[in-house]
Amino acid sequence: MIVTITEDAVGLRDGHDLTRLHVESATAGRAADAERLEAAGLGHVREDGDVLLDVAVLHRLVSTTVEADLHTAWQGMLSYAARKGWTDPDRRFLRAHVERVPEDRADPLLPESTGPEPITAEPIPPDRFRAVLGHYASGVTVITGAAADGPVGFSCQSFSALSLDPPLVLILPGKGSTSWPKIQATGRFCVNVLAAEQEALCAGFARSGGDKFAGVEHTPGTLGAPRLAGACAWIDCEIGTVSEGGDHLVVLGRVHALDADPAKAPLIFHKGQYGKLA
């Protein structure tokens, strides 16, 4: 894929081709490149003239031009770039070389005016949203951390694996959580996947205030965050990026260690009720 920069816009060409990446610029020079990239939110220019492209913004740009599902190819491209040293440790930015070209060659395919028309729809009531999405059965986790004033944790249904290479997970704490800021300050957390018989434990960690760890057996994990006794599995993570997600936060965790008890069945949450595997 080729990111194009002109005096008027930033665009993309050959977005389906993830085997190459460079920038073609028809601007007056490095300062103009920096101005256009920053205005588009796509990245910035290094002192050596190469550019650092924001991976998330670049992915959105590619998604608007390519109909095929490129998830696997995209992750493969990022892994290859990381091995070559073309990304930062968190894979937030991709380094690309800039080639100076005539303006007609760098003509972008995606000027701002060609974007899709905004979709207008009636607001969705929160109770309706919750009821429909409640049909998606999930496991239940407790996110724990070792804060300065003692262990802290909260129940979290919104948990997902994100990447195999490197191993990454996602958790989505609510913005109103009083436990998450304490965990975030430590820079690490543990995902405890609850077992079928731990419904009461989930309820205890779902409440606000009080000593949630009273009477709860736990041991420190590899990074210090508590691992709850009896859980199906545990995943020790370092906090990567934290971004806005409506009334929640989207937290990326870099996995450092993990294990599971294959003899234990998970606790299931479905349509507002706890359940077990048949």
TrEMBL record:
Q: Which GO terms describe its molecular function?
A: oxidoreductase activity
Q: Name the Gene3D superfamilies for this protein.
A: Electron Transport, Fmn-binding Protein, Chain A
Q: Which SUPFAM superfamilies match?
A: FMN-binding split barrel
Q: Does the keyword Oxidoreductase apply?
A: yes
- What is this enzyme's EC? 1.-.-.-
**The Flavin reductase like domain, residue ranges:** 133-276
Supply the enzyme class, top level. Answer: oxidoreductase
Q: Keywords assigned by UniProt? A: Oxidoreductase
Instruction: Give the family per the record.
Output: Belongs to the non-flavoprotein flavin reductase family.
Protein's UniProt name = Flavin reductase family protein
Which species is the source of this protein? Amycolatopsis rhabdoformis
